Each structure stands twice: as C-alpha cells, then as structure tokens.
Recover the amino acids of this structure.
C-alpha cells in the first residue's frame, strides 16, 4: 500500500484528522471519508463543476485537488451553507426561481454563484453567465440559474 | 376563493433536500460491508480476444475477485432488447454482459474487478493482460450496410438489424406529378446524452432469502426489475429495484445495461453488497448515445408550395448491440411523425437499423421526433426557396387547420387536438418577424449577417395505449398506476409507478391531489422509485409521466372523492344525492354549515367506527390508467442568430418558444422543461457530436472534447404558450419534456442557413461549428465586403462520419 499521510482539515467549521493516501482526491476524502456526499462528481477532467467547494475562502474543484493539499485548510461544502434551517440567500433564490431540476449540478452551482456574488454584489446577467463557465448543467439551460443568481444578488442588496 | 392550486407556479417541494446536499443519489449510498467494482473495457472497436490473464489483478491489494466473460456464461443471460418492431426482420443478436470471444465497440466489457475500495479496483484493472487480434471496424451506419463492410454479428448479414417501411397514400405517384421536388442529405450526428450524474448501481444479494436489491440510477425501476429477472434468473418478486435520487436521464437511463447486471452478478457471487459507478470518461463510451442517422429525404409540392409528399431512406445506427428500446426510436417515434403539424397526403418512411462498432444508441431527449421535425423543417425551407416564398409563408400554406378532437394523418395515426397556426401567429408577434425581415435586408447590404429560423412541430408523446404498444412490438404495456392513501390525520401519500428524476412531479402530482380533493399541497407526499413500495408502472420517458401517470393520480382522487361523499352523507345523515363537494368540503345542498371536511371523512374512514353499510374501512384507492391515445403537443419556435463571416462564429441572439402542452399544472416547471430542452437542442445544432476516428476510437471521449452548452453560450430563452386541451385524458394535458429539443435544433439550423443565404452557403452538416461555417463561407467565394460573391455556388455536403 502507498504510504499514508496525516492531514487535518476543518470542514464546515469542524476539524477532522485522518490518514490518507497521497493520491486521494479532496472530493473522495469529503465523500468517502467524511461522508459529506452533497458534493458531487460529474466528470474526471475538471470541466463540470459539480464538485466545487470553498477552500480558504475561494472556490476550488475538489476533484482537482488532493486531500493532502487541504491539510490545514478550511473547507466549506454545500452541507455547511445553511445555518440550521436557515437557507442562504443563494439557496433560497435557487428554490424560488426553479434554478434546479435533477439537482446533481446544484451543489457546485450554489457554491459558484455564492462566490460570484461575493466578488461582485451586483452582477449583470452576462457577468453571471461568464462566472458559470466552469459549471455545467444539462437540465435547466442555465436560464433559471442565472435568474436565481440575480435574485440572490438583489436580496443581498437589501432588495 | 383562493387561487386554484392546479395552474400555480409554486416552488418545488423536492428542492430543499437538493439545495442543501441532503439528497442521496446512488453513489451517495453506503451499505455495511460494501465493496467496489470497476469494469475493464475494450480499447478496440472490433477485435477477437485471444487471451486474458487475470492472475496479477487477482493478487493485487484489496482485490476480492476478477470475472471475465467465461465466468458469466450460463449464469448471466444476455441483455434482452425490449422493442421488437414487427414485420422488420429484426435480428435480436446476442448481447452478453461481458464479451467473450469478440469485442464490438470501444467500451464493451471484458472483465470486472471487485475490490475493497474503488482505487484498488482501478489499480487492478491495469494488471489484467488481454490479448486482442484487431478486426476491421465500421462506424457510419450507411457504410456499414454496404457490401464488403466489416461484419459485427454472424446472424445479422450486412449488419442489418431491421428494415421497416411505413407508408400512407401514394408517394411515388405524388412525386411523379409534383411541380417541385426538393431533397436533402441529413446527418443526424451521434450525440452523447450527458446527464450530470453518470450511471451507478449497488447490488445487494441475500443468499438466505434469495433476494436481490438493486439501487440503480434508472428512469424506470419496474422495467429494470423485470429485465433483471430475465438476466439474473432471480424471480421477479424477489427483486427490489430502487431508483434513489436520479441526476438526469434524457433517455440514457431507460436501458437496462450490462453494467448493473454485472454488479448484481458480483454481489451474488461474493455475498456482499457491490457498488459500481461510472467515471465520466467511461460514461461517454458505456452509456447509450442518441440519434446517429444518415438520411436521404425528399419533399414534393405543387407550384404554390403546397406539399404533396415526403419520403425518406434512413440509415439508423444502432451501435454494436440492440439497447432496450432502440429499434422503436427511428421507426415508431420517427417514421410515424413525418406529417408533423402539416397536411401531407402521401408519406413514406424507409428505415434501416444498422449495427456499427460504436456505443449502442438509445432514446435521447425527443428520441426520433427531433429527427422527424428537422427533416420536415429543412425540406419546408427548401420548398419555400424553390417556390420563392418566405419560410413562414410556406409553413402557413401547409399547416393543418385547427381541430379540437381527433385528426387523422396519412401515415395512419390520429392527432388529439391542435391549433398550429395559433402558435405560429403568437410566435411571429413575439419576435417581430416582419420588422426583423425588414432590418435584415438592410443589414445584409452592410455585410452583417443575421438570420431567423422558424420551426413548427407536432410530436407524439404520452406513451401510450398498451394495445398499440403491443401492436408495434414494445415488450410491455404503457399504462400507469397510482395508489393514494389518506391517513387518519388527513395527510396524503401518493405512490406512483412513474419515476421522475428532475421533472418535478413530487410537486405537480401533489398539485393534482390538492386540486382534486381540497387538501393543502404541503399535506401531500409523492413516493416513487422503489418497486417494493410503489405500484407497477412503466417509467418516466416519452413525455408520459404527467399525461399518463398524472391521469392515474387524478382518477384515483375522483374515486376517493366518491367514497368520501358516501361516508359524508352517512355522517351528515343525508341522502348521498344531496351531498355537494367544493374545496375539500362535503355539505348538504342548501346547508353549507352541515359539512364534513375531507379530513373529517378520512379520520372516520380510517377508524371505521361508524361507516355506512357496504363501505370498506380505509381511505385508499388505486387506478391503473391506460390512455386511449397518445398526446400530441405542438408549437412554433424561432431562433435569431448572427454569423461573423470573418471567423464563422455564431451568436445565438434570441430564442423564442411557443408551446402548447394543454393546461399547465405548474407553469414554472413547464417553463423550466422548455428552457432545458431548447438548450439541449441548441447543443446538437451548434456544438455537440460524437466524433470517431477511422479505427472506431471516440475522439470526443471527455467533457473537454464533447461540447455541451455552457451558460455564456446561450441567451435567456423566452417562453410562451397556447392552451389546447387534449380530449384524450382526464386532465387535458400533453407532454412538455421533449418539445424543446424537438423544435430548437431545426429552428437554430434554419436561422444559421438564413443568415448565410446571401453568401451562398445552403447546406452544412451539424454541429455548425465556427470552423465548418468559416470553411463554407470561404468555399462560397465570400470576399469579406458583403458584395461581389457568387450566389450560384451551392456548398456541397461533407460527410464527417
């Protein structure tokens, strides 16, 4: 067996220590070791964005990071967004605007839209679409994902 | 009076689990003691297996077992095809779950490894040593049928899987008499469905009970159970298939695949639960593809552009084996739709199903109807050009006049209801068609090339009457069922045989229930996707779930309302004939204060302390609903595009859809279905296509190479509707899940050709990539200033298969 490496990662505010193979992908660590299966795997070439999580404040594709790279990091997954029953504005906007159908891309979409709005609190539809370039959806035609993003941004403006 | 819940765009009731990461898809499920399978797949399109050595793999860390084709022989039966088109000389060739002797496409299974974890299973795959003797291969379905082509199956000479002809009228005479005939060669390129969730299965065998439980990402768990029974030999009542959360299907999760049967085999051999999940790269070769037609199509018309006949010769690629429903797609779902929304007296479809050394073809969103719509719309444009009339005018001269109850068409089917010109009129108003044409002429003079494409469609869905299913060789019924139970607390469970996976029926079916019996929509929970807990049904595909399954729910609610009325009369000490119902209340006519709510009645029915004579306890009913006809949604779509003549880049500027699916239960959900369908169809027109090299290697084998639409490539889709109820089902509804792909490929293609018309480019293969457009513009002699180019040079057709 390959040597295992000890890592400690804070995921959704909770510290986890584990020994992982160096080749273990972050997404597999989250899904298989921590049982946080809300983060999805949609491809194996970093195209689809279903696996997007936040690591140290920025979004990363967790299929393109090794678990060992997250050693000492703070990671937020889809499970860590809602505060108890209180959805975030982005989650609420996805629900209100029918921004999902099968739901498989949704975790990655919500993580990415959250970051788009953090960087640009008042994005145009065009800016949202550009920001979603690394996230694929096959159900919605992106229409209502863009609507949800704009609605979430508007809600964040106190609107 | 509150707003009627039927017709309200309420937000979906399934969403909270999906937006919080709490939903469980197949790969999210873990069972105690579960181990992991990985499948070794052929790297050759066609080869003889000369040797397999699994010793090193078996000795690899964590490996429990390695199985090859020899191990499944006599244990796992071949994968059956469930759609045996009659009178077509269909060759039901053997489709072994693991190849033995010969592999027939890149992706065919050669061996399976089971290991303690996925990484170990993948490691061991690399240690299996397979000797191959490569054989010649063939990918293009027309070429595969030709003399001398490499042969896939001994019992299918010339690779012919079937030959099917459907005709109405006298097509040959109509062509002989025609003032105008036009023709086209259409490559309906092979497409890769790409649901965001790849395929996955978990099999758990109980040797003590002889029971198999199969978690399977499927659109039709009951069909999956039936086929699993045929393949594994486990009796049907000892198999439980669970479709948990399913991450999109688009037809690719209809088939019962070898892979979940292999997974079941492994669990039955080892006595532990086994999980198998595709990688995306694996998905692109191992999960079914769509379309793949080479079509020679013709249309005949009189001098005024009134179409008199349409005919085709179609070579439909089946891939290497016949997938579950594959033969029905280019035939029943394609050839029978050659009238579309038009009045055409003479029709002939001549369709060859052909084996090729590629991934098996199955239903893909629209399944046959996008291909039919595309050829009709393509030919309609050409008739318009030949007569010298506008593309909208030629359509208008051929649309079937409005009708509200049954219209026979020449090919021998009966449309339910339609107002095709009504949809077209509304569309033209929304896009400002006349103004666009006016502006376009001016722009062309300045070297700006914009185009508009209009597609009218009518499609067959809501599959379908079981008697017809039997007559056309479908290996099952197409009815649907629902069981509804109202508890003593007044809360409601709806158990359905269909299996939604993104279409929102947990919400829309709850709306039907709430509308029919006056309960709050939040008091209704819809249960689906588990053969042990839901009544038999045939699944979610062919835009049938709401049309057939929704009707079963509505009829069940009416049964319960009738029962509740009897109980209410008894409780109110009134004559049943004097009981009226409104908004969940049963009351004595003329005395609204003498009332029992549905919740009151449900409580009494469940405790059964005081029921009228002859009334059984409980508040539960079931319906098995077999529709008397299919449903025929229709509409008109328009695309506006810009083409940059310098680099061939196409911008999709605007897209407007007018669809008619009858009364809408939830307009927000309907709109979402149209959005997604339109963009998927745009993918076929502009970006998508499975490309193989001469050796049968899939070159578009990852998401890097196969270009599904992305957010920045598409505009906001403008969605409108007309409402023409279907006379054939109790809700009047028609399907909406496939209309987008059925119309949009044709509309966008037509728009691009319209934009290129002044340059002299008249025909191109899809997808209309910038390179193809740029080359065609150059070949047409366009000089870059919008003037001085040749109009008489028709760009020839490149065949890129």
């Amino acid at each position: 067996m390959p040597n295992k490496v000890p890592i400690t990662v804070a995921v959704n505010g909770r510290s986890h220590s584990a020994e992982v193979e160096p080749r273990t992908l972050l997404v597999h660590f989250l899904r298989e070791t921590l049982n946080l299966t809300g983060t999805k795997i949609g491809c194996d070439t970093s195209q689809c964005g279903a696996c997007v999580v936040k690591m140290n404040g920025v979004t990363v594709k967790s299929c393109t990071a090794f678990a060992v790279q997250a050693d000492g990091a703070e990671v937020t997954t889809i499970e860590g967004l809602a505060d108890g029953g209180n959805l975030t504005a982005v989650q609420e906007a996805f629900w209100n605007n029918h921004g999902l159908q099968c739901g498989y891309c949704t975790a990655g979409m919500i993580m990415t839209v959250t970051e788009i709005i953090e960087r640009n609190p008042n994005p145009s539809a065009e800016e949202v679409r550009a920001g979603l370039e690394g996230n694929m959806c096959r159900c919605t035609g992106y229409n209502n994902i863009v609507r949800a993003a704009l609605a979430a941004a508007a809600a964040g403006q106190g609107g | 009076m509150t707003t009627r819940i039927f017709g309200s765009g309420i937000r979906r009731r399934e969403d909270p689990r999906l937006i919080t990461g709490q939903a469980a898809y197949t790969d999210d499920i873990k069972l105690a003691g579960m181990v992991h399978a990985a499948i070794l797949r052929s790297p050759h399109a066609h080869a003889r297996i000369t040797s397999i050595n699994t010793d090193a793999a078996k000795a690899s860390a964590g490996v429990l077992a390695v199985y090859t084709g020899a191990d499944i022989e006599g244990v796992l039966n071949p994968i059956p095809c469930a759609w045996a088109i009659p009178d077509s000389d269909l060759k039901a060739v053997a489709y072994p779950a693991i190849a033995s002797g010969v592999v027939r496409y890149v992706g065919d299974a050669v061996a399976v490894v089971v290991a303690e974890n996925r990484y170990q299973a993948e490691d061991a795959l690399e240690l299996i040593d397979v000797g191959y003797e490569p054989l010649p291969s063939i990918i293009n379905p027309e070429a595969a049928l030709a003399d001398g082509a490499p042969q896939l199956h001994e019992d299918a000479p010339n690779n012919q899987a079937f030959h099917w002809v459907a005709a109405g009228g006298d097509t040959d005479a109509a062509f002989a008499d025609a003032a105008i005939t036009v023709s086209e060669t259409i490559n309906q390129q092979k497409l890769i469905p790409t649901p965001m969730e790849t395929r996955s299965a978990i099999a758990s065998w109980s040797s003590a009970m002889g029971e198999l439980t199969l978690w399977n990402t499927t659109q039709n768990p009951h069909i999956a159970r039936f086929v699993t029974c045929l393949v594994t030999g486990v009796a049907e009542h000892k198999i439980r298939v669970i479709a948990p959360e399913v991450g999109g299907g688009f037809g690719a999760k209809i088939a019962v695949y070898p892979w979940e049967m292999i997974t079941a085999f492994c669990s039955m051999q080892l006595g532990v639960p086994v999980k198998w999940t595709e990688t995306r790269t694996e998905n692109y070769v191992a999960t079914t593809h769509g379309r793949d037609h080479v079509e020679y199509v013709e249309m005949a018309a009189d001098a005024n552009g009134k179409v008199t006949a349409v005919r085709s010769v179609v070579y439909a690629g089946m891939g290497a084996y016949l997938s579950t429903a594959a033969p029905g797609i280019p035939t029943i779902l394609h050839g029978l739709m050659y009238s579309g929304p038009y009045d055409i007296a003479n029709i002939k479809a001549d369709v060859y199903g052909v084996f090729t050394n590629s991934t098996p073809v199955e239903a893909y969103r629209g399944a046959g109807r996008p291909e039919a719509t595309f050829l009709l719309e393509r030919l309609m444009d050409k008739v318009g050009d030949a007569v010298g009339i506008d593309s909208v005018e030629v359509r208008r001269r051929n649309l079937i006049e409005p009708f509200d109850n049954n219209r026979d068409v020449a090919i021998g089917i009966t449309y339910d209801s339609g107002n095709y010109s009504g949809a077209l009129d509304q569309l033209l108003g929304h896009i400002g068609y006349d103004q666009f044409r006016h502006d376009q002429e001016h722009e062309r003079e300045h070297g700006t090339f914009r185009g508009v494409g209009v597609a009218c469609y009518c499609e067959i869905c809501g599959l379908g009457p079981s008697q017809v299913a039997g007559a056309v060789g479908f290996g099952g019924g197409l009815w649907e069922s629902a069981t509804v139970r109202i508890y003593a607390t007044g809360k409601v469970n709806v158990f359905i045989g269909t299996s939604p996976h993104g279409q929102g029926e947990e919400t829309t079916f709850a709306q039907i229930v709430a509308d029919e019996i006056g309960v709050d929509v939040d008091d209704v929970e819809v249960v689906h996707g588990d053969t042990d807990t839901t009544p038999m049904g045939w699944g979610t595909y062919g835009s049938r779930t709401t049309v057939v399954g929704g009707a079963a729910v509505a009829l069940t609610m009416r049964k319960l309302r009738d029962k509740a009325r009897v109980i209410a009369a008894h409780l109110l000490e009134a004559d049943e004939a004097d009981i009226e119902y409104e908004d969940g209340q049963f009351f004595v006519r003329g005395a609204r204060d003498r009332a029992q709510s549905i919740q009151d009645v449900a409580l009494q029915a469940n405790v059964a302390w005081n029921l009228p004579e002859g009334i059984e306890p409980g508040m539960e009913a079931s319906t098995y609903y077999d529709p008397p006809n299919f449903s025929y949604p229709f509409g008109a779509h328009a695309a506006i595009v810009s083409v940059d003549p310098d680099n061939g880049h196409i911008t999709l500027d605007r897209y407007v859809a007018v669809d008619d699916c009858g009364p809408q239960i939830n307009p927000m959900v309907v709109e979402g279905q149209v959005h997604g369908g339109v963009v998927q169809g745009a993918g076929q027109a502009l970006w998508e296509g499975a490309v193989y090299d001469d050796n049968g290697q899939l070159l578009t084998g990852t998401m890097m190479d196969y270009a599904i639409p992305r957010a920045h490539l598409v505009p906001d889709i403008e969605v409108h509707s007309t409402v023409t109820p279907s006379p054939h089902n109790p809700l009047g509804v028609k399907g909406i899940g496939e209309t987008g792909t059925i119309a949009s490929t044709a509309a966008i293609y037509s728009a691009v050709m319209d934009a290129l018309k002044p340059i002299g480019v008249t025909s191109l293969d899809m997808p209309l990539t910038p390179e193809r457009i740029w080359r065609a513009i150059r070949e047409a002699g366009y000089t870059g200033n919008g003037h001085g180019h040749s109009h008489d040079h028709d760009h020839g057709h490149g065949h890129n298969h």
Remarks:
- Residues 545-571 of chain B form the longest helix (27 residues).
- The first strand of chain B starts at residue 35 and ends at 41.
- The radius of gyration of chain B is 28 Å.
- Chain B touches chain A through 60 residues (CB under 8 Å).
